[in-house]
Amino acid sequence: MTALDLSSPVAVVGTGTMGQGIAQVALVAGHPVRLYDAVAGRAREAADAIGARLDRLVEKERLTGAERDAARARLTPAESLAGLAGCAVVVEAVVERLDVKRELFRALEDVVGDDCLLATNTSSLSVTAVGGALRDPGRLVGLHFFNPAPLLPLVEVVSGFATDAASATRASGIARAWGKTPVACADTPGFIVNRVARPFYAEAFAVFEDQGADPATIDAVLRESGGFKMGAFELTDLIGQDVNESVTHSVWQAFFQDARFTPSLAQRRLVESGRLGRKSGQGWYDYRPGAVRPEPQTAEPAEAPAYVVAEGDLGPAGELLALIREAGIEVRAEGRSDEARLVLPGGGTLCLADGRTSAPFRNVVRFDLALDYRRATRVALAASEGVSPGVLAEATGLFQALGKKVSVIGDVPGMIVARTVARMIDLAFDAVAKGVATREDIDTAMRLGVNYPLGPFEWSRRLGGAWARSLLAAVDEGDPSGRYAPSLALHRHACASEGWEDFPS
Description:
Blueprint: E1 10-13, H1 17-28, E2 33-36, H2 42-59, H3 65-74, E3 75-77, E4 89-92, H4 98-109, E5 117-120, H5 127-131, E6 140-145, E7 154-159, H6 165-177, E8 181-186, H7 193-196, H8 198-209, H9 215-224, H10 232-239, H11 241-254, H12 265-272, E9 307-311, H13 319-326, E10 330-333, E11 341-343, E12 349-352, E13 364-367, E14 378-383, H14 389-401, E15 405-409, H15 417-433, H16 439-449, H17 456-463, H18 467-478, H19 488-498
Parallel strand pairs: 1-2, 1-4, 2-3, 4-5, 5-6, 7-8, 9-10, 12-13, 14-15
Antiparallel strand pairs: 6-7, 9-11, 11-12, 13-14
């Protein structure tokens, strides 16, 4: 049973990329759709563009010719807002300006019926603020589609402070009937995805700013070790540096300049220079004709050690021991140790990234977290300044013997994948504690909205309840700016995972 009768008209206001995409979704679902744009002629142009998209769906055999013709017949450009009278739901996708949206919805209230659901597709503004000027703010809900709307399955259903529960339930039902996966969230800066995803960009940019590695290497490590579909630099080039930076800045300001959401100075300079990514021909990478994509830094072949000595529990990296044995390298066990590590024949120590740098130690090499060490095709290493060339060569050769490419990066705390994942886990726990969304909806949103390999709670279960807190606490000790301080919610989760202690008598 659908949440909205297929005979009920749907209105879309704003006919840019998002508006056209949302209209196409409703149209293909079987509704009559009315398009309106404040600029004369834009609605007609958008209708023609949507018709061309339907033609391509027929070419790809995703629609029949008859279905396309029926959909086109249901699509109507409206000459004025008055043409939206009688619609059961209106979805707004106009410019991201609060004054414009508020004025639009005030005008719509005088046109549509009292039972019409009003929805805003805002990605960065407060739904509460958008609906604040309405006579009945209870019927306004956030219905945040992701671009491209016809392809991406996620819709964030955002309840403002005054949104009626029935309106949110109805909006979720409509999204589901349109073939989307709705997730419910409260009206907080960034909602779910744009809140929890900030570290994916921020930590990559921070490693770059700290001279830890170049963009191509950081992207390669995120893809080939972390399991992400795209690296942060290539993804923001695709999104548009101005768009990504604007969202980051908006979330940062909305959280009263919370250090956890601090924007990147390097990205600001990129935007100021006009290098906005693919759309301008240059961003972090060069997309102009003839430009050569830079290769990630990859270590030269090195000889593998004859054996390693395993001490302590390698935790998330425990699978490495089986891989080392399968590669024909002897693993000698030396019992338990306070430090989980592999000792190399040359006297060096190989440890999983734990948030500390290798700076105080001699001959210590750290390796980054991987989504799956067996399937990973690249591993990042970071060495202390005092490491001997022989120890670094042994560490490099070890991972190369396991079939991995090796990128040696600067000695940055938490490396690349480990600190990115830890920060996303932290923001996710904090969001649940503050009533933003459920754990299940956050994991769903991050997998479907930004195509992450795992949701943050799935990562947490895999890595252990105290892992993220431990790593972030170590980074925070070296960088006490507040950016890496574990949230109270993560701290409580870690304590519960480790077991409670009796209060000292």
